[in-house]
Amino acid sequence: MATAIDHGAPPVAPTRHPGLLAFVAEVAALTKPDRVHWCDGSEAEAAALADALVAAGTLIPLDPAKRPNSFYARSDPRDVARVESRTFICSEREADAGPTNNWRAPEAMRATLTPLFEGAMRGRTLYVVPFCMGPIDSPHSVIGVELTDSAYVVLSMRIMTRMGTAALDRLGSAGAFVRCVHSVGAPLAPGARDSAWPCADEKYIVHYPETREIWSYGSGYGGNALLGKKCLALRIASAMARDEGWLAEHMLILKLTAPDGAVHYIAAAFPSACGKTNMAMLEPALPGWTAETIGDDIAWMRFGADGRLYAINPEAGFFGVAPGNGPATNRNAVATLHANCLFTNTALTADGDVWWEGLSETPPPGLIDWRGRRHDPRSGEPAAHPNARFTAPAAQCPSIAREWQDSAGVPISALLFGGRRASAVPLVTEAYDWAQGVYLAASIASEATAAAEGEIGALRRDPFAMLPFCGYDMGAYFGHWLRLGEAAAAAGATLPGIYLVNWFRKDPQGRFLWPGFGDNARVLKWIVERIEGRAAAEDTPIGRVPAADALDLSGLALAPGALDTLRGVDPRLWNEEARRAGEDLARFGDSLPEALRAEQRALEARLAIVTGGA
Ligand SMILES: Nc1nc2c(ncn2[C@@H]2O[C@H](COP(=O)(O)OP(=O)(O)OP(=O)(O)O)[C@@H](O)[C@H]2O)c(=O)[nH]1
Ligand SMILES: O=C([O-])CC(=O)C(=O)O
Ligand SMILES: [Mn+2]
């Protein structure tokens, strides 16, 4: 086994940053690891870690002839998704966490966590993982340091972030960094055998927005454990963005080039497992159009001196839902996964490769399912967990745009918001203006998916697709969006258009009315033409929908009547929608901006006119 990781001598820290040295010393004193290892992010280090994880049974190497340098992990079956009920925002004041977050007083939470972390890394290695969210040379990037006892987390962070020496160099000897502490919560007694996926029953995913700290306990899974992603780049970053005048959003970033060569960048927010990665890698069904990928999950945006809204992707990899990705839906994702990837909770084939529902029409024979059991195709159970994930370097994506690491970011023309809605919500709706767009985004709802615990399919309000990810009071967050738009407009900016989209409308038999995926380019074309002032639209109470002949449907055979349903706004359904949205927004009490109350009243008034009642 390679020995680049473990050696008896005390490690020499590769930094003289006093705050970082003190942080590592404090956490090591608390958690009592056997060793401390400072990660440099090198190939040799990754290879040694992978070897150790294979020896421990955590990783299974895939056949290098099929998928070089790629590994498969099966998690504990109780550790397969984010745990929103165990995710906490510990601001000093309860009101600052808002009604949608779990709040605990910081001192009380620290008093709970300290005994849990006490000795939590016994028998394990504490890995020091310096990482940079955003391009190494971008002024908008943020440095974090994650101290973790999971080598799986280290390997994942190496794919998902700029990790190791480069991040430490950027931090320098005095820079600011976000303190991140992670333990799987499974100390090892001397001589005890480790489990393949150590974790604890009791999980805590804790954020202290004022001190910009993250403490995560008990889970090894994705969004709970890779602390640069949801915890830093959304929950902590949203609080930083509020204080500093920018936006940290759950959005993909797409570059779209029209046949005439015009380039538009589009950012889109959909809840977890609702199509961000797919849209980020879209292959347009319309001839002459090109789509390229900038990011698939998170966008950090700020208005530039020229009045345009610039976005960077803070991540360096994709942590994507595997099921559903196949040659018919997302060829770019499939091609991205050819090498250097981690797969978690997919199925394993008899010949040493991975498989999931949707990768091919029928499962190959001899599959082992995500629980490690022989898969029986007649059981009706999927072979891959519905939230099985791949972890893949973004640079490997065939559709990655050459400017994806541009330090200034890319200028956004349109902001899309959506969710999974079987009924009511049209295919695409243009907001009348910024404030009404903020209202539409604040009132989106979506049918729950397997990306978090809870009943799948249940409708829940998910404002801005940020419900699980906003690190402060969402009422104040809506106000932040409104103020940024007002300030930019006052300074003469042309604000991006705001659009509500829904690819998931169904007919009474439960079939999708819209083909989705590459055909979503038809909607993007309409949006681009709207921005350029060339496409026709019709006013409805909720916003503008495409005129009857305004969508390019060439080469597409929709079911009879489908287009009318997709463009339609049923006033009776929308009376109910508006009532429910208003009820949800009322939860924010005094922090709900007056402008959104006014939008609510205006929507109700427009609906009353079309239904002919009050
Ligand atoms: N019907 C339909 N399904 C889609 C479409 N786009 C994506 N999906 C499905 O939605 C599921 C999730 O898609 P992703 O693109 O991975 O979702 P995501 O928003 O990136 O998810 P997170 O990584 O959890 O944030 C997959 O099963 C896709 O096949 C679409 O346009 N139409
Ligand atoms: O954070 C995760 O575990 C995966 C993810 O992207 C999401 O749920 O939005
Ligand atoms: Mn996501």
From TrEMBL:
Record-linked Pfam families: PEPCK_GTP, PEPCK_N
UniProt remark on cofactor binding: Binds 1 Mn(2+) ion per subunit.
Residue ranges constituting the Phosphoenolpyruvate carboxykinase C-terminal P-loop domain according to the UniProt record: 246-606
Location relative to the cell: Cytoplasm
Gene Ontology MF annotations: phosphoenolpyruvate carboxykinase (GTP) activity
Enzyme Commission (EC) number: 4.1.1.32
Quaternary structure, from the entry: Monomer.
Family classification: Belongs to the phosphoenolpyruvate carboxykinase [GTP] family.
Protein name: Phosphoenolpyruvate carboxykinase [GTP]
Gene that this sequence comes from: pckG
